[in-house]
Please model this.
Amino acid sequence: MKSYFSNIKSNFKLKHYINYIAVGVALVLLTVFYYSGILKRSSADLITQMGFSIILAVSLNLVVGFLGELSLGHAGFMCVGAYIGAYLTNAISSAIPSKILVLIIAVIVGGLSASVFGFIVGLPALRLKGDYLAIVTLAFGEIVRNICKNLPFFGGALGLSTTPYGPSMFIPTFIILLIMLAVVQNLVRSKHGRAITAIRDNEIAAKSMGINVTYYKLFVFVISAFFAGVAGVIYGGFTTPILYSFFSYNYSIEILVMVVLGGMGSIGGSIISATVLTYINFVLQTKLSGDLAALKYLFYAIILIALVIYRNAPSLKKYREKFNLSNLINMIIKKFSKKEREEVGTVEWDRVPTKISTDEILSADFTVTNYKPDKPDKPDKSERP
Amino acid sequence: MSTIIDGLSLGAIYALIALGYTMVYGIAKMLNFAHGDIIMVGAYALYSTLLLGQSPVVSVLAIIISIVACVVLGVVVERFAYRPLRGATPLAVLITAIGVSYMLQSIAQLIFKAKSRPVSFSIPGTTFGIHNSTILTLVVGTVVMVALTLFVNYTKTGRAMVAVSEDRAAAELMGINSNFIISLTFAIGSALAACAAIFYLMQIPLVNPTFGAMPGIKAFTAAVIGGIGSIPGAMIGGVLLGVVEKICLSIPAIAPYTTAIEFSCLIVILLVKPTGLLGRKRREKV
Model:
């Protein structure tokens, strides 16, 4: 028994649990703040928004970052979840008195119905690649929105009105978030997660190693859609009425931006960027009103373009290596602690190794230090016949 | 019958926009999400010039200014937003394009405010029961497309464009200035977008900052239906989508679901032919 625990202790890395700890601590602190009255209602709403943005970003990251397929219809899955969840809540809330039970049922049903759509969208993914798949997901999002707008029992253009759960919505949201993090992080670090990243890195190679590409692609789409649907139910739980116009492809793109800025294939990055971007959106939305609201998008766009160009432009590589966030942190750490850090041999599974292009390997400078070319042997005259 | 002709005319507009998407995709291998907003800029340029007065001279001037504004904008955007990212991952370029799209929309909203502005720019009257502007759209659209096909297939520059889209490195080795060709492609695509904006304004005489979003997405769909990267494909896809849209809109029972039906067409076609109608299948090498 003792050896078992010591084994756990030696394998325990803070890195693997940092996301749970961060979200868990946030949940506890916010709950305390909320019940002691420090947290205002608008802030509670903002926190719920952050919660479902994180769920959306992490679930999209599964498709974009880990499976390597571009999806532009994530808001479509959310739309399905939101409408079905809200419709169900309206239908059963009179029969079931407990609010939390209704929410649990709505989350499960909403998530499952979204995952059915995820399966449907996943089917073309088996035949299509890259940009073609991206446009199919975009088309799917628009189709769902168009149908939800016109179905009479979903309220039409006026939207589906619901009875909101209330400002304490953020508590179930964060609990769902924790569950999702457990599912996603364990999935990514499991055998299945490695199969998924193998498909991303080279589909043909993965196939020839015996990975069932069909199964895994559908699997990822279904899981991702499930959580997007759950996020939709949460959205429906605190907003009324649910409007089809919210789920436009612009929103899908906003989620994609969160994923890309946070780093594709990095769950922690998605969490941070979703939180920060939601906060910035919220602040700018409250500060700027009317036509000045366009300023918000202007800042957003300029920052986005500058950041992407800085991060990706081949000609700026030199500066990127010089002014790097991790370099900066390392410098600060070195200044404050003189202790040498052992960095060899740690395997980071938080961030699954990204694709290495063959060009990079080929262009790597081989600087061989202690190599002197052998002088050609002088022919021995004596051996000559 | 008039529904079909309306559809063909709308299809011509979609085809003009889709050509911009498909040419840029073929040459720069990127989805130019900002293309729809170039349409919007063209429409605003037309609107601003028309404020000078209502006379044939001003109208001609407005058309010229609109096209020139779009061409300059397209080239500038390519130079400052996309060229630094040449050789970067496609997703980075895509995100930049989305950023440019947001930027153009917000600038338009800051200058012209969010409300829709009426633009009266059409040819009144009908011939054989069809609006004159519809006929004009159809005729000019066809002429432009034929001219573009001839340009691409029979001029030296056009051949150079094809060469760059086939294999940029090999084209550069043959002495083609690929940066110039890419700029030229953006210029042509933007000019076509300006034409599309003018014709679209004849059908829907209101311009607002998100004017270009919906025709942009639909034209993008059209380009994919035809096989993205293929010029005749974009024309066929555009016309097909325009006709489907007008037919759906003419039947009251399914009119609200027009958008859904159009996008379903895309999904069905892609399921049958994964690279679109005229797209070439790329062999995968290990």
About this structure: The domain at 14-287 of chain A is CATH 1.10.3470 (ABC transporter involved in vitamin B12 uptake, BtuC). Residues 339-349, 365-371 of chain A have pLDDT under 50 and may be disordered. The CA atoms of residues 96 and 122 of chain A lie 35 Å apart. Chain A is about 70% helix and 0% strand.
